[in-house]
Amino acid sequence: MAQFEFDSSIKGALPADFQWGYATAAPQIEGAWNKDGKGLSIWDTFGHTPDKVKDGSNADDTARSYDLYKQDVARMKRYGVTAYRFSLSWSRIIPLGGKDDPVNEQGIEFYSKLIDELIANGITPFVTLFHWDTPQALEDRYGGMLDKEKYIPDFNRYARVCFERLGDRVKQWITYNEPGVYTLAGYAAGVHAPARSSFRDLNEEGDSSTEPFIVAHTELLSHAYAAKIYKEEFKPQQKGTIMITLHGNWNEPWDESDPKDVEAAQRAQEFEIAWFADPLYKTGDYPASMRAQLGDRLPRFTPEESRLVLGSSEAYGMNSYTAFYVRHRDAEPDINDHKGNVEVSDTNKHGVERGIESDTPWLRTSPWGWGKLLRWIWDRYQTPIFITENGTTAKGEHDFKPKGPDDVLEDPHRIDFYKSYLSEVAKASQEGVVIKSYFGWTFTDNWEWAAGFTDRFGATWVDFDDPEKPRYAKRSAYFLRDFFGHLIKGGTN
Ligand code: PNW
């Protein structure tokens, strides 16, 4: 008897070549922070700075996937995935990060073995070059991405090493993960590495009114150069695809009958998503709404840069989690505003909640917004979408006491989340929105950046108190396996 019940109207809604699995990031799962020649990243520094991480933890061990990758791949196979998205640690591959610095062969060796293990188990690797862990040496030398002239050649060289050494087997490359979250959390709010902002109670240095836009510009340009290198020097033989992954939640008008709120919601959408996506997929330039508010604080593309960026990403990598209500503000925008001068709230004018709570304050289950977002992206950019992250935490998962190695954690909140969001993916796909992949965030519980171990996003529960970091399945892992067996054409359910 089937364990879960599925809606027959969406059976076979996704194409037979649809890829699905889980996404992870090196600093959140690998551990081995100083093992086998790895250099420091800005997240090692951040974790070792007192009072930066909520529970006082650091990225030294995390889930120890560096040591446990074989059992992890075997577990993924049991979960039925067809693909796995993970990131490379730049400072594991080039410990000092720079274009003239030595390559660490042991770092290459680790990723090479992981890739071989995946392929041997029939799992397609999707590889992200950069998931927020800038080499600390580059931050120290010239301020990392604040200096695009020095940074771009270093990133190009790193990308080239990865294509050269791993591109014979990796056919799906992602340059950056969420350039927007990297710059907003690290340079506007100052709550992520490299911990810069205008707020002197929190950070010693930084300028929230300018640096986020400078760093974003560096990310777009360095992405585009790396994509050009891939397409010109590697793609002809290796025949892979290269893209970037953008973050973005859905912004819904607080009062849908007020044209100012409708406009504010669209503006919020542009500040969050079109900031990166318009230069990449639509115009080669930043949205007019951003230029109007930010003026010269927003960098300008030269005509050559604009041509380089537009069309550089071969697909739309999409990370999204939730939705918010937004209301216009009558006051002038704050100098440190990066949201488009809006007020964000959990309820709309009629008191309707944006969704039920998870264990993470910003994240509510809002499938209604996710469905709208899929169509907004498709309508505006007309580019095939690879969903590269989506998922949730659930309350109460810190108290799980496994009764044995095969005990399964019941996580109905996460199952409901995945069921509702994937039903929207299926419906959008039936309508003609081109969606090629789905990666749940995330495979195992991990180190959730500044939240430390307090946010459990995994489909697998990890006992972080045990130095061996044993893993236990959550029920949602089996739900996803069975649901994809229903949704993908020719599947078993
Ligand atoms: C993503 N938001 O970050 C990252 O890619 C992951 O590394 C991270 O663990 C995961 O989502 C869960 O947080 C985001 O506030 C952080 O909307 C914040 C937001 C979105 C994505």
UniProtKB/TrEMBL annotation:
Q: GO MF terms on file?
A: cellobiose glucosidase activity
For this protein, the parts annotated as crossing the membrane are none
Cite the entry's keywords alphabetically: Glycosidase, Hydrolase
Record's keyword annotation contains Hydrolase: yes
- SUPFAM superfamilies to which the protein is assigned, alphabetical: (Trans)glycosidases
Q: State the coiled-coil residue ranges.
A: none
Q: Name one Pfam family in it.
A: Glyco_hydro_1
Enzyme nomenclature, EC number: 3.2.1.21
Report the domain of life of the source organism.
Eukaryota
Q: What is this protein called?
A: beta-glucosidase
Tell me the first and last residues of the signal peptide. none
UniProt family annotation: Belongs to the glycosyl hydrolase 1 family.
Q: Which reaction does it catalyse?
A: Hydrolysis of terminal, non-reducing beta-D-glucosyl residues with release of beta-D-glucose
The reply on keyword Hydrolase is yes
For biological process, the GO terms are:
cellulose catabolic process
What does the protein in this record do?
Plays an important role in cellulose degradation. Shows hydrolytic activity against several glycosidic compounds.
